[in-house]
Amino acid sequence: MTGPLHQRIRSEIEARIRSGEWAPGHRAPTEAELMEQYGCARMTVNKAMTALVEAGLIVRRKRAGSFVARPKVHAPVLNIPDIQSEIVARGEAYAFRLLSRTVRAADRDSPDEVALAAGGKLLELDGVHDAGGRPFALERRLVSLKAAPEIEAADFAEHPPGAWLLEHVAWTEAESRIGAINADAADARLLALDEGAACLVVDRRTWREGQHVTRVRQVFPGEAYDLVARFGPSA
User: Fold this and answer.
1) Closest of 61, 50, 58, 56 to residue 73, by C-alpha
2) Are 35 and 81 found together in one domain?
3) Mean per-residue pLDDT, 176-184
4) 114 lies in which domain range?
5) Which of 13, 19, 56, 139 has a CA positioned 20 to 30 A from the CA of residue 46?
6) Can the keyword Transcription regulation be found in this entry's annotation (predicted)?
């Protein structure tokens, strides 16, 4: 490749990432290693790596190094992303690991749970979405068995709870709240992150014709999710 050396370095690293030779989470060479490999100055290497970071292909972790970024779920702000479909569309193996499954009554001290249950029971589900054999997102979900009684016996081996609900109990109204947290020890362990790592949290509730269906909290590593909004000019 002709042109500036930093562009060549970037292109060669990008090719390894896009071909799958370097999988998400793969540790990239250090700047010193790249300087030795290409016989160039640190500024040249830094320019190439900065461009890869800006392109979302590399993520830098303080005191740990540079790693291939996990592909992001691109979620339209006014839509509910199907994590399984997003991951499969990228050509990665998808799996949902169910950690716990409990049928219980609503907590009487929680107005939200009482409203969700609507006099019935709740199905509480905790699980992890995996992409390419790596943890991608945590999911903690409550489902109204009054709104979706069949889910109590559902097998989530092929379709996770969210996909099951989209197919069987289509929502007519949804509310999403997006925030950020630092992973505590338990979440960090399940997501294979360092404790305190930045994570994005999506809290969502759905209704079907006024009836509460589900409440879910999904926790993503900060590098694995972004929100997309497209607007036209106002009248």
Assistant:
1) 56
2) no
3) 91
4) 73-228
5) 19
6) yes
